[in-house]
Amino acid sequence: MSGTSELETLKAELLAEIAGADDLAAIEAVRVSALGKKGRIAQQMAKLGTLPPEERKSFGAATNAVKDAVSQSLEARRADLEAAALEARLQSERADVTLPVRPGPEALGRIHPVSQVFDECVEIFADLGFDVAEGPDIETDEMNFGKLNIPPEHPARQEHDTFYFPQKADGSRLLLRTHTSPVQIRTMEARKPPIRIIAPGRVYRCDSDQTHTPMFHQIEGLVIDETTHMGHLKWVLEEFCKAFFEVSDVKMRFRASHFPFTEPSMEVDIGAEAIGKPGQWLEILGCGMVHPNVLRNCGLDSERYQGFAFGMGLDRLTMLKYGVPDLRAFFAADLRWLRHYGFSVLDVPTLAGGL
Ligand code: PHE
Questions:
Q1: Each residue of 175-196: pLDDT tens digit?
Q2: Which residue, of 166, 208, 261, 339, has the greatest Cβ tally within 10 A?
Q3: Last residue of some domain: 60, 92, 124?
Q4: Atom number in ligand 1 closest to CA 286
Q5: How many domains are contained in the chain?
């Protein structure tokens, strides 16, 4: 057989093998056997030396032509196989993005309405420049009462239905805080004005009926600097109520009241049309200008510093906003109730996205 027809046969065989390779591993095997160092084309090249000089040139050129043809064919086949493999994978891993999300544990869990309102308040006050302060649930008499200008035997103590711990050897006794106001004291003792904080948290009073539970939640607000006055207090509370009830206007009524730690003191009602009950007033919070005695008790110069404080019940706000009739249901740990009133874990309240 002449060298040239042998080459033609080899070319035909290799092209047939390439065409018959039906996956990437097979095409690689063909490549190695054809173009590898000891492959069939290299074997042809090795014959060059044995040929008479006049044949070498044309045989070399013909071998190279076969090599090129085989290389091109290999690459083309490889590209086809790769495209087919990708297509097969796309088919098998296809996801229909229009299908509803399968409910995972995050979607099934529910946020308690009080936690939701807690987050809503933090979001609103953060926007007004307040940061969040915390204090312990177990307090001293001094923090819960004394420094708040409620000395022993003060009649205000009776309204607080306090849970006391047993008396210690030195005569003192700890208690469960009856309001979040001790966090005012802790904050003023720990940092210099200007102060602008809210203190949300649990409080305890020995009281239980449809609108009272032994544990409930309050949020305290405190602003202390050299210039803050009652106009600021009213504005902050009005902005809060508008944002919280998601209305553009809210009617508010400030009634003179009394708290030992503020002077003057007020209770605030909102027009219940904000929650769809026109004609009624609802009490939502207590507030006032921080009493100079309280400032002095915390080591602040009462001639220089002034400011306001307010305190409101988170549970009550939750009942008003979300129409929950019985406070006791908040603490019944009833899953059906939680599914009905609860909030999706993924619905984080933001002012931009809605509360
Ligand atoms: N601490 C008061 C209460 O629990 C509420 C309050 C806080 C009033 C701050 C005025 C200022 O009743």
A1: 999 999 999 999 999 999 999 9
A2: 261
A3: 92
A4: 8
A5: 2
